[in-house]
């Protein structure tokens, strides 16, 4: 998610629940603008493990301008060299781009600087602005701010950033992390950054849970991208228009079609475990009430600590009515549904599972899988998602980012579910780490004629 900030006093940011990219250009000199990228919360896990490595990968591959400068901003007392050592410990070159790796790494580290925010972000942002200005000189300058901070710190960071750290001679863009709020109303003000696994488990046993985190900001967006009608162009606004139509067409979810789960607490904090009912697992059957998808169930499932870490879309096809080959199958044909699988994790792939004839003189059918594994087909390393995110922000490409009406439409799908769960005090089913999750998810799937894959 990214937000362009306008530097005028009249447009001090009320951080809306969704974001449109705004650029503010003020009579720029006719020169190549410099780019300053500030990582706010530079010493946190997200910045160290994801943001800085993604920035280096883009720099190494030539997707950042040569005059880029990277700034780390946090409240810890560090020097530039301390920040560089911390960043270097998490950087590697791509396996398909080892040439001049050390040289590129040194160049990148020389372009990184640290700003001690102190205990007052107003003074801290002024220091950040001053340090950026020193690097930029008199040239036109663009700035990106990545807010890798917890939601409770967002306004404390964003308001002084708006007042004191924006460039007046280029565009300003800000990236914020999901989830976007606790409810529809609070999504107008808050976000949440990624944390370590221990911190994540703590958050889920608190108030946010997997519905507000993953379902709202990931799964519904994936459904919208998959189910949308072809846009009139590849322009970001045209794509987002179609996504909104899908979300607005989603039927109210029946609580009977929802399965909640909670991973058994491994921290030893029995009191926290017994008091919390916040789900770490969510499965549901959803429907889109439009002409294309009328009557087609969308079964979703996501959870912490499951047997496999997989992200994929599985399209199951109906059996042919009156299948004359039914008796030729070596086993139950109802267990072998033709499927198209679009996989993102653990390895990018497109898989087609089909029922086909076994080679030979007889007439026996079997289920086979046709694989397109990207790592086998293409001799390149697939970029990390954070690289895509940052490059889109640099290029001003907003089509994969959530707009305010998208956020509102997603909340309109989930808010009734969350309200009913709270009103009825629906207790999540407990499951062990490394398990398949709650067994009730399989019953809900069967109810709608869908078979969960046994491996996930």
UniProtKB/TrEMBL annotation:
The keyword NADP applies. Pfam families: G6PD_C. The keyword NADP applies. One of its GO terms (molecular function) is glucose-6-phosphate dehydrogenase activity. SUPFAM superfamilies: Glyceraldehyde-3-phosphate dehydrogenase-like, C-terminal domain, NAD(P)-binding Rossmann-fold domains. One of its GO terms (biological process) is pentose-phosphate shunt. Keywords: Carbohydrate metabolism, Glucose metabolism, NADP. Residues 188-452 form the Glucose-6-phosphate dehydrogenase C-terminal domain. PANTHER family: GLUCOSE-6-PHOSPHATE 1-DEHYDROGENASE G6PD, INACTIVE GLUCOSE-6-PHOSPHATE 1-DEHYDROGENASE 4, CHLOROPLASTIC. Belongs to the glucose-6-phosphate dehydrogenase family. This is Glucose-6-phosphate dehydrogenase C-terminal domain-containing protein. It comes from Triticum turgidum subsp. durum (Durum wheat). The lineage of its organism: Eukaryota, Viridiplantae, Streptophyta, Embryophyta, Tracheophyta.
């Amino acid at each position: 998610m990214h937000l362009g900030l306008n530097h005028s006093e009249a447009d001090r940011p009320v951080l809306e629940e969704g974001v449109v990219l705004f650029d503010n250009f003020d009579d720029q000199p006719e020169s190549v603008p410099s780019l300053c990228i500030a990582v706010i919360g530079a010493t946190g896990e997200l910045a160290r493990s994801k943001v800085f490595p993604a920035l280096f990968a883009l720099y190494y591959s030539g997707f950042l301008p040569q005059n880029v400068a990277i700034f780390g901003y946090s409240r810890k007392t560090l020097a530039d060299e301390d920040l560089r050592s911390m960043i270097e410990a998490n950087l590697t070159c791509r396996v398909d781009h080892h040439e001049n790796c050390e040289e590129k790494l040194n160049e990148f580290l020389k372009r990184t600087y640290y700003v001690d925010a102190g205990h007052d972000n107003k003074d801290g942002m002024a220091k950040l602005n001053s340090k950026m200005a020193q690097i930029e000189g008199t040239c036109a300058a663009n700035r990106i701010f990545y807010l890798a901070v917890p939601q409770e710190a967002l306004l404390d960071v964003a308001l002084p950033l708006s007042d004191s750290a924006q460039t007046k001679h280029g565009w300003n863009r800000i990236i914020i992390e999901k989830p976007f709020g606790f409810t529809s109303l609070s999504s107008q003000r808050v976000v949440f950054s990624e944390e370590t696994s221990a911190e994540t488990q703590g958050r889920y046993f608190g108030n946010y849970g997997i519905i507000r985190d993953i379902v709202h900001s990931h799964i519904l967006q994936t459904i919208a991208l998959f189910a949308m009608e072809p846009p009139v162009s590849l322009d970001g606004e045209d794509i987002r228009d179609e996504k909104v139509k899908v979300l607005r067409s989603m039927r109210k979810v029946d609580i009977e079609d929802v399965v909640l789960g909670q991973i058994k607490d491994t921290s030893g904090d029995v009191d926290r475990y017994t008091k919390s009912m916040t789900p770490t697992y969510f499965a549901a059957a959803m429907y889109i009430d439009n002409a294309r998808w009328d009557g087609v169930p969308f079964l979703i499932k996501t959870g912490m600590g499951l047997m496999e870490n997989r992200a994929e879309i599985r399209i199951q096809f109906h059996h042919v009515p009156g299948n004359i080959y039914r008796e030729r199958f070596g086993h139950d044909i109802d267990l072998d549904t033709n499927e198209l699988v679009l996989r993102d994790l653990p390895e990018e792939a497109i898989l087609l599972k089909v029922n086909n004839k076994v080679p030979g003189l007889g007439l026996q059918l079997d289920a086979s899988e046709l694989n397109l594994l990207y790592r086998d087909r293409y001799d390149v390393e697939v970029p990390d998602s954070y690289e895509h995110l940052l490059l889109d922000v640099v290029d001003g490409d907003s089509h994969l980012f959530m707009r305010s009406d998208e956020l509102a439409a997603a909340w309109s799908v989930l808010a009734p579910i969350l309200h009913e769960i709270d009103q009825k005090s629906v207790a999540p089913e407990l499951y062990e780490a490394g398990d398949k999750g709650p067994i009730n998810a399989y019953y809900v799937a069967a109810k709608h004629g869908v078979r969960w894959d046994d491996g996930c």
